[in-house]
Design a protein that fits this description.
Elements: H1 6-20, E1 37-41, H2 45-56, E2 60-65, H3 69-77, E3 84-86, H4 89-95, E4 100-103, H5 107-119, E5 123-126, H6 134-145, E6 151-153, H7 161-171, E7 178-186, H8 204-208, H9 218-222, H10 233-250, E8 257-263, E9 275-281, E10 286-292, E11 300-307, E12 310-315, E13 318-323, E14 340-345, H11 350-363, H12 371-390, E15 394-395
Parallel strand pairs: 1-2, 1-4, 2-3, 4-5, 5-6, 7-10
Antiparallel strand pairs: 7-11, 8-9, 8-15, 9-10, 11-12, 12-13, 13-14
Length: 397
């Protein structure tokens, strides 16, 4: 029988205890039952939704940060009484003991917010689109790769069970080889770009961040997505979601080229088109991405996958798989009747996507939507924006 000294026993017992307490953000050992601590950066409408949902899932909010005082106070009221408030996220990251941060800021802050959180040794949930530009995407992917941090990007379709089932249908060849995917989004949605004075305190310079310096224009804060200084507009906002699904379902990375045209039909006080159409070339297929924010015909989003043996329609209700009607008797003939052969209802996934981050923070496994996935998803829309703004066809670098 091998004898173990008391000193060796205590040393081995301490090691076992430390192994049972995973080191999470900030290098602090945490027990499996301890709530994960987070801070919110960006407390607008979407940010407050994320903030509340993470709390509902058992995480503890330690601090909230926003450049606009009314948003900040709204998030504070929905936090534990001792949660602290900040206008400057850099001060917050310096002072708070956290496991992760939630980034709900405008697009132009995603990169600096992520890099600062990584420097602070924290895991991150960041809203989509990943970046403001292709160059930022590359920086963000490199920074995460060179860290040991878990980063989840808020593309919740990556956590929806029915879309995984849809992927199985396509992989099994149910609709044959996909030749064309058509993504679209139709809303009758106009935001009045009000330039009247803002109620409440706004730290304008902090809002601008690395964006071009300019005098305060309240409309730019109220609807920042309408201006290229702060976002990729509707092209990257909704396009990130839909083009990710197109690429995921068909096994493609970013497109090899993009061409796009757009028009400002209703949102005249902004810069970004509210009606546009983009075409993406992939090695073995094409995809289109159209948006119309002036019409609710075929309301909301959808993606049509047209294959040699059938067609799949995916939308907010779920998906339907249809048989191929067959060859027409003539170019204008009706062909055979199309049959519904499978369908699945929308399974939701927004909360599951956030729960996936919490699970991965504890397990240290990669989450459902990594920065590499998010960078590939937004690459085509970034290319399409360049095509629209520079009136040229854009090729992948």
């Amino acid at each position: 029988m091998h004898r173990v000294s008391r000193r060796d026993f205590l040393r081995s017992s301490a090691g076992a205890t430390l192994l049972a307490l995973p080191v999470i953000g900030g290098g602090v050992a945490r027990g499996a039952e301890d709530p994960l601590r987070f801070a919110l950066i960006g407390a607008g409408g979407r940010g407050r939704y994320l903030h509340q949902t993470f709390q509902n899932l058992g995480a503890r909010c330690e601090a909230v940060c926003d450049v606009y005082e009314p948003n900040l106070m709204a998030a504070k009221e929905a936090s534990p009484a001792e949660a602290r408030t900040y206008f400057d996220y850099r001060r917050m990251l310096e002072r708070e003991k956290l496991d992760f941060v939630v980034v709900g800021t405008p697009d132009h802050h995603h990169c600096p917010n992520l890099l600062a959180a990584l420097d602070a040794g924290l895991d991150v949930y960041t809203e989509k689109p990943l970046s403001l530009s292709l160059e930022e995407s590359a920086r963000m992917v490199k920074a995460v790769k060179n860290s040991d941090r878990i980063v989840q990007v808020g593309m919740q379709r990556r956590s929806m069970g029915h879309i995984y089932k849809l992927k199985e249908h396509i992989a099994d060849g149910v609709i044959g080889e996909v030749s064309l995917a058509k993504a679209k989004w139709n809303w009758n949605f106009t935001v009045p770009l009000d330039n009247s004075p803002l109620p409440g305190k706004l730290e304008w310079d902090l809002f601008l961040g690395d964006a071009p310096k300019r005098d305060l224009e309240p409309k730019r804060f109220r609807w920042w997505r309408g201006f290229y200084d702060y976002s990729g507009g509707n092209m990257t906002d909704q396009g990130t979601h839909l083009m990710d699904v197109v690429q995921w379902m068909t096994g493609n990375e970013a497109p090899v080229s993009a061409v796009a045209q757009g028009n400002i039909a209703a949102a005249k006080a902004g810069e970004v088109p509210d009606v546009f159409s983009a075409v993406f070339q992939y090695p073995k297929m094409m995809a289109t991405w159209t948006l119309n924010y002036t019409s609710s015909y075929e309301h909301d989003w959808s993606i049509l996958f047209q294959g040699t043996e059938g067609t799949i329609l995916l939308d907010a209700a779920g998906y339907r798989v249809y048989s191929e009607p067959g060859r027409s008797g003539s170019p204008w003939g009706a062909g055979n009747q199309m049959q519904l052969i499978a369908e699945e209802r929308d399974s939701g996934g927004a909360e599951a996507h956030m729960q996936n981050l919490l699970d991965c923070i504890r397990s240290r496994k990669q989450p459902n939507c990594t920065v590499e996935i998010a960078a590939a998803a937004v690459e085509g829309p970034h290319m399409a924006n360049l095509s629209m703004r520079e009136d040229r066809k854009v090729h992948r670098a």
